[in-house]
């Protein structure tokens, strides 16, 4: 079995403050090498982030594809297989999460991927309509 | 109604009675009673509302009645099942004065939190086939009058529905079979889900209903009578199915009560609860008999199997009367009958009594027919197997059933087109487990994880099924779909690549064998299931008397069955170092092919969505990169005697006889490509070693032996120019068509060439003495005693036929892969004498062949030569000359 994608919800009991103004939230998207997924997940788990959405994606940036010839047929890879991780985090966890990914996803070669951060206006838990970072 | 107490409101009635039904269920675990009582309760509520809002008159209104249909019509309501109601009018115009009443009744029921599905129809509409609303037609097959005009209901029940069925039986049946087929497909076509939907999955309650409907349709058409459908079933099918229905009904009640809604997914935690509360077990008053969740699930699968058997039988009967084309096809299959079995309507019947079965042989004959022709067993054949098995294993349940030629017979089943089908039924009837008790460990075994959807035994059969499906894949030209649009199309294109690998396997049965046992360790108390499977399979090897080399292959596949997935997941497959390391694990192209297909089959059988195009592509990339590495690194990956595999050299030495020394063997192996050690069994190496020792007195050592439908020539000689060309020339002169060849040499300049060839004219087969003559002829050519030119002239030139498919000649040079040779990869279409022509041309151009890897796939030739010229890589100028010469040789006008 290779990869398992699931959208999970991260409980953040410490930042719960019902009825009050909630902390800012940010969305973190990282495109990484498939081979680094286990390590990245482990490192994020250690800092308390274990809810994320994982997708199998393809793409390329500066790392161009290449061609493999197998038994006379050419198999060109122009879009390389990558893994995309997405999560929405309360502001105070973002730096630690970025650092965890940088530490574990880096091999030093072209093709290690990128991290994107953006701000999120609202999060709503569908089950009970909780809002803000307590819905994360 | 003379009670002194005021009537409770419908809401109060529903609430208090529902509580009573629930607590009775909790005490007894009896789902059938609970569903019947709930249906009666809802009857009371619905009748009260009808009286109140539609008609207080005892005889009810004319031309309007209220009918329970579907499950409610059957009088079975699970706690959160839909309540299906039909408001029936004689004519559409009769609706006018009741419009308000209908709306109020429906709304009130909704407000009581009953999930009502209601429809309003005139009598005539109930007699039409609604192909876009099959559910409505089918729901009328279970109808019951609740209130209102009883004569109107009688018209529906006694006239309209029977006539509809009689008129539309074919369409009604075929639509019902089609929705059933689609539903089964959606659930992977198997009952063995880890968290099954007990209503919709195969072997679930819906299948029981389908069987009832089919029986009812048949009876309504035949006699127009509403008999109890179950009574038309044979007792052998009926009794277990009824018990299964009761079991599932109780389980469904538990699910509904736990979930608080119509959720029929038997999740892990509910399996625990069902087991702990002894659902489906006969209760002694007081404590429920708790069993483990795993045992309880095995009971579930037993029941699901009963219903599956029932519905399969009913579908078969319905299909058989449905289409004459189908009947013709089944008639045609009856020609598959033989002395021991007859085939009727696609099912096998035994001709001899089960008492006449003295060993497992006839049972294996039966399953060979299944695997060969994709047939089903008749109920008689199932019983025949069970009875024979009971006698054969009597007294010795624990010891496996044995048969002297078990491996050849079992191997035959694995090699046929449909082994998965045969193995699955062998397992269901207990034969597989009697032959291989190791398999019992995973019988209906539920292992809980995120990914797997089926029980371990079913997963195992699905892996083998996946390979069978690959072999059946309809060949399509990739050109037809240059821009594959949808997911299925993309997957089909990928699957075709894997189908090609499968077609190239020399021993596909060993892959199927390894798959059959790869997960048995999951049912054993050990940390690492691959380790458990390996331990278990040793006993199987012994009983099957499997040859040593085959054991090694199977051990490799089981031990490494997660390795390719792990490499995909944890390594960068575009990193040459990762490819090199993985290549070391697999060792040879043959093993790579098998491991790749095993990985494909294993992931494919996890759940229907597990093998995404993304993963498939990754697997393919890892495969091609590793394959190419193995092909291009032969030259540099050489045996150093000091580091050679000790175990293997020891067994070679033991076989080589007392006079051979370790030092001699070391000298022989020194410098051979590692590929040589990895692709040959100790027996072969010992024979080659003996041949090399004879080079002291002979010029060359040649031996020919039959290997299945091909022959193999092995030659050991001292290296010299034109050696490879002379050998291919000799084989060409004898009219042999070379399929595969390896040419290796060691540090001492001893060459070992192996050729696999087809004996087109069956010379060797028809004249056994010709084999020795061929050996002498080859040795003579090498010793210079036989003139190759004369030999070739004596041969009439064979006509050259162009290949049926267009294979353009390709020549590629690679200077980077080997440290001291130039690799040439040549791809072209096959023709007689090709390899001789090519190797002669190379020799004439002054090229020495260090390593040759010759392969043929259908009409396509894929040759790789490692060339040197005067001990170094080929100069670009020389490469250009080689290219030009070969192209002019190979590209006929």
Classify the beta-strand content of chain B into a percent band: 5-15%
Global morphology of chain A: elongated
Give the radius of gyration of chain B. 36 Å
The end-to-end distance of chain A, rounded to whole angstroms, is 28 Å
Q: Helix count of chain A, per DSSP?
A: 2
Q: Count of DSSP E strands of chain B?
A: 15
Spans of chain B with pLDDT under 50 lasting ≥5 residues?
A: none
Strand order of the largest sheet of chain B: 8-9-11-10-14-15-13-12
What is the makeup of the main sheet of chain B? 8 strands, antiparallel
Structural class of chain B: alpha+beta
Task: Tell me what you see in this structure.
The complex is a heterodimer of chains A (136) and B (893). Chain A is built from 2 helices and 6 strands, in the order βαββββαβ. In chain A, α1 packs antiparallel against α2. Chain A is elongated and about 60 Å long. The N terminus of chain A is likely disordered. In chain B, the strands form 3 sheets. Chain B has an 8-stranded antiparallel β-sheet with strand order 8-9-11-10-14-15-13-12. Chain B starts with 9 loop residues before the first helix and ends with a helix. The interface between A and B is medium-sized, with 26 and 33 residues.
């Amino acid at each position: 079995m290779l990869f398992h994608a699931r959208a999970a919800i991260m409980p953040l009991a410490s930042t719960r403050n019902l009825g009050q103004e909630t902390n800012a939230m940010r969305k973190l998207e990282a495109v990484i090498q498939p081979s680094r997924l286990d390590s990245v997940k482990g490192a994020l788990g250690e800092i308390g982030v274990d809810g994320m959405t994982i997708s199998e994606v393809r793409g390329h940036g500066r790392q161009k594809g290449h061609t493999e010839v197998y038994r006379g047929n050419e198999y060109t890879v122009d879009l390389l297989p990558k893994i995309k991780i997405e999560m929405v985090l309360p502001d105070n966890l973002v730096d630690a999460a970025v650092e965890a990914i940088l530490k574990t996803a880096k091999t030093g070669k072209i093709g290690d991927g990128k991290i994107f951060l953006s701000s999120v206006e609202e999060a709503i838990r569908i089950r009970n309509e909780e809002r803000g970072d307590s819905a994360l | 109604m003379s009670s002194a107490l005021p009537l409770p409101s419908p809401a109060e009635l529903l609430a208090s009675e529902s509580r009573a039904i629930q607590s009775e269920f909790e005490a007894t675990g009896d789902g059938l009673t609970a569903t019947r009582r709930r249906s009666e309760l809802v009857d009371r509520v619905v009748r009260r509302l009808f009286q109140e809002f539609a008609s207080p008159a005892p005889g009810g209104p004319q031309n309007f009645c209220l009918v329970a249909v579907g499950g409610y019509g059957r009088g079975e309501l699970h706690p959160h099942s839909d309540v299906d109601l039909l408001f029936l009018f004689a004519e559409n115009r009769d609706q006018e004065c009741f419009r308000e009443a209908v709306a109020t009744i429906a709304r009130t029921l909704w407000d009581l939190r009953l999930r009502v599905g209601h429809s309003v129809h005139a009598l005539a509409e109930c007699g039409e086939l609604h192909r876009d609303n099959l559910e409505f037609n089918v729901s009328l097959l279970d109808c019951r009058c609740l209130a209102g005009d009883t004569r109107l209901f009688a018209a529906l029940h006694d006239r309209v529905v029977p006539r509809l069925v009689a008129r539309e039986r074919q369409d009604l049946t075929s639509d019902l079979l089609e929705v059933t087929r689609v539903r089964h497909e959606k659930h992977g076509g198997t009952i063995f889900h880890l968290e099954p939907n007990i209503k919709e999955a195969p072997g679930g309650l819906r299948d029981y209903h389908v069987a009832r409907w089919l029986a009812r349709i048949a009876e309504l058409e035949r006699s127009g009578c509403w008999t109890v459908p179950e009574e038309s079933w044979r007792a052998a099918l009926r009794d277990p199915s009824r018990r299964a229905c009761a079991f599932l009904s109780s389980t469904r009640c538990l699910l509904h009560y736990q979930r608080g809604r119509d959720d029929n997914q038997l999740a892990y935690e509910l399996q625990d609860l069902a087991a702990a509360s002894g659902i489906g077990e006969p209760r002694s008053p007081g404590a429920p008999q708790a069993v483990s969740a795993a045992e309880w699930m095995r009971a579930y699968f037993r029941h699901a199997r009963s219903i599956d058997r029932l519905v399969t039988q009913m579908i078969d009967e319905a299909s058989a009367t449905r289409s004459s084309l189908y009947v013709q096809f089944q008639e045609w299959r009856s020609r598959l009958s033989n002395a021991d079995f007859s085939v009727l309507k696609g099912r096998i019947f035994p001709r001899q009594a089960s008492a006449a079965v003295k060993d497992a042989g006839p049972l294996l004959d039966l399953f060979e027919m299944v695997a060969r022709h994709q047939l089903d067993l008749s109920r008689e054949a199932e019983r025949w197997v069970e009875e024979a098995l009971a006698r054969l294993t009597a007294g010795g349940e624990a010891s496996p059933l044995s048969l002297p030629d078990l491996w050849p017979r079992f191997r035959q089943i694995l090699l046929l087109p449909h082994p998965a089908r045969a193995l699955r039924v062998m397992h269901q009837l207990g034969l597989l487990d009697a032959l291989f008790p190791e398999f019992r460990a995973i019988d209906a075994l539920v292992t809980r994880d995120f990914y797997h959807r089926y029980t371990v035994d079913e997963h195992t059969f699905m892996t083998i099924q996946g390979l069978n499906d690959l072999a059946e894949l309809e060949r399509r030209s990739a050109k037809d779909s240059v821009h594959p649009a949808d997911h299925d199309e993309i997957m089909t294109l990928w699957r075709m690549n894997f189908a090609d690998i499968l077609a190239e396997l020399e021993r596909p049965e060993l892959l199927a064998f390894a798959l059959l046992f790869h997960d048995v360790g999951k049912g054993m108390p050990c940390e690492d299931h691959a380790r458990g499977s390996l331990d278990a399979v040793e006993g199987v090897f012994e009983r099957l008397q499997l040859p040593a080399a085959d054991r090694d292959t199977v051990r490799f596949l089981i031990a490494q069955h997660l390795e390719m997935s792990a490499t995909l997941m944890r390594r960068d497959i575009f990193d040459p170092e990762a490819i090199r390391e993985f290549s070391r694990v697999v060792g040879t192209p043959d093993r790579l092919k098998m491991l790749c297909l095993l990985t494909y089959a294993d992931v494919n059988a996890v759940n229907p969505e597990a093998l995404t195009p993304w993963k498939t592509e990754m697997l393919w990339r890892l495969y091609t990169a590793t394959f190419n590495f193995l092909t291009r690194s032969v030259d540099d990956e050489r045996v150093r005697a000091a580091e050679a595999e000790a175990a293997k050299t020891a067994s070679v030495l033991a076989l080589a006889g007392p006079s051979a020394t370790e030092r001699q063997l070391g000298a022989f192996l020194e410098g051979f490509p590692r590929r040589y050690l990895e692709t040959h069994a100790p027996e072969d190496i010992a024979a080659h070693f003996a041949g090399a020792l004879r080079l002291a007195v002979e010029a060359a050592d040649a031996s020919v032996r039959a290997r299945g439908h091909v022959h193999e020539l092995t030659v050991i000689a001292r290296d010299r120019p034109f050696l490879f060309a002379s050998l291919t020339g000799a084989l060409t002169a004898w009219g042999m068509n070379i399929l595969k060849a390896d040419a290796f040499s060691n540090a001492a300049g001893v060459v070992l060439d192996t050729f696999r060839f087809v004996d087109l004219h069956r010379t060797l087969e028809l004249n056994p003495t010709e084999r020795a003559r061929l050996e002498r002829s080859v040795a003579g050519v090498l010793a210079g005693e036989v003139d190759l030119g004369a030999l070739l002239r004596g041969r009439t030139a064979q006509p050259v036929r162009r290949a049926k498919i267009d294979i353009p000649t390709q020549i590629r040079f690679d200077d980077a892969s080997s440290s001291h040779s130039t690799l040439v990869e040549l791809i072209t279409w096959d023709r007689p004498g090709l390899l001789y022509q090519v190797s002669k041309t190379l020799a004439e151009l002054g090229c020495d062949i260090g390593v040759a890897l010759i392969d043929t796939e259908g009409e396509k030739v894929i040759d790789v030569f490692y060339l040197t010229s005067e001990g170094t890589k080929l100069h670009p100028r020389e490469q250009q000359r080689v290219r030009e010469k070969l192209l002019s040789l190979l590209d006929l006008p």
